[in-house]
Structure formats: C-alpha cells, structure tokens
Amino acid sequence: MKAWLVAALALASPAWAQENPLQPSETWNDLRETVIGLTAEPPVNADVLDLGAPIRANDAAIVPIRLTQAPDAPELIGLTLVIDENPAPVAAEYAFGAALMPLDFEIRVRVDAYSGVRAIGTQADGGRIMAGRFVKASGGCSAPAGKDMAAVEASMGEMRWKSAERDGRTIGTLMIRHPMFSGLQRDQVTLLNIPANFIDTLEVRQGDQLLFSMKAGISVSEDPVFRFAYKPNGQPISVHAEDLDGRVWDNTFDVAG
Fold this sequence. Notes:
Layout: H1 2-12, H2 26-34, E1 50-52, E2 63-68, E3 76-83, E4 90-96, E5 104-109, E6 115-123, E7 128-135, H3 149-155, E8 159-166, E9 169-176, E10 199-206, E11 209-216, E12 225-230, E13 237-243, E14 248-253
Antiparallel strand pairs: 1-2, 2-5, 3-4, 3-6, 4-11, 5-12, 6-7, 8-9, 9-12, 10-11, 10-13, 13-14
C-alpha cells in the first residue's frame, strides 16, 4: 500500500514541463491517416486541450502524462493517446462522461524511444483537437516487470480508490494491480518472453453515470494509476476491468474511498 501511495503522489504533483513541443514526425504523418483516420492535421489549442509531459523521463516505463482543459473549454467526449515511436502507437482510447469536464486527467505510460506523445480529442460536435509533447525516453515497452511472477499472480486485480478536494474540485485516484505485460519483456528467471497480457477494457462509473472508459494497448504502465477531477453525484464508484487472458474484476467504492 505504501508503494501505491508513493506512486499516486508522484502522479498528482509532477514537474510538468512545457518546453518540449512536438517535433516534425514522419511516423506521425503515416499514422495520422492510416491508423487514426485523419486526412488533415487537427488544430492545436492549449486552452481546448493541453498535454503535459516531462522533457526527459526518469523512468521510460512510468512516464506521467497530464491532459487538461481551460475552465470554459468545449467538452470532450473521447480521446486517443498516441505515442508515435512505440511498437503499438495507439496507447489507449478513452470515452469521457460530462462529470469529467473540464478535463484534468493523469495517467502513466511506457515510451520506447524518443517520441512525440500526442492526444487527439473528439468534441461533442465531432470536431478534433490535438495536443502533445516530445519526450526523451527509451526502452519502456521492454523494461523488466517490477515484481516476480508469484507476486504478480497473488495481487493481480487488487484495486484502491481515494478522493480528495483540491482547488475547488474533487480529485479521484484509482490504482489497479496488474503487470500490463507488453509481450516484449522477459522473465528474469527463465529469460523467456512473457506473453502479452494487459487490462484492455476499463470502465469507471459513479452510480449509473460514466466517468470514463478505456480501451488500452501495450503502452499503459504496470500497476496503472488514474487521477482525475470530476463532479461527484454522491453515488458509489464502480470499476469494471478485463484483461487479455479473460480475467474480469469488478469493485465498488464509497465516494470517499
């Protein structure tokens, strides 16, 4: 529990660097149309959507990303997170409920090579908006898992939830135990590749109201942590998670955690 708390605090208060703008990327030029389905470059407007990330990651397997909007920004209903140079560039696809607006959402990802990390948001009218940073990191997708396999099996699917008030908003933090194996890591005992297995489906609600859902790939960090501002409605927080191996976890938390 202590390690989880340290991780949550690190996510909640990183030194967000804004001196690392996106750089020209031939990889992104290919991805934009073939993978994301965009024929034109989405506009960039930091008030509508901004992405904070470190210039150089302390740990390429745990790179904090913060997505924010100005208070009067148009609502986003979804977002695709892309890490240009990762083996599977689409890190995650999100759907957002109205309770998360304006967006203030933090996650941790793996970055495999110096890369643009970009968010392509979808507004209610179908319009797209983009934000991003260039992050110097390497090897994140093949970095060894932090625990041995026995410890992984014993704790997989455990969840923690907490909420707090900050700057007039309610901040929720959800922590889930899962190795999020990328398929590129090796067992440190057998030296064999560990098959890919990660949480690919996640849904978080308060009562019947959607807070957010996620369809993930290999780039979400081990033991994922999600921190987000939201408008509480007084109902319990419910979490539904599924991984590639078919395991399913459901949990419900009091609002206060």
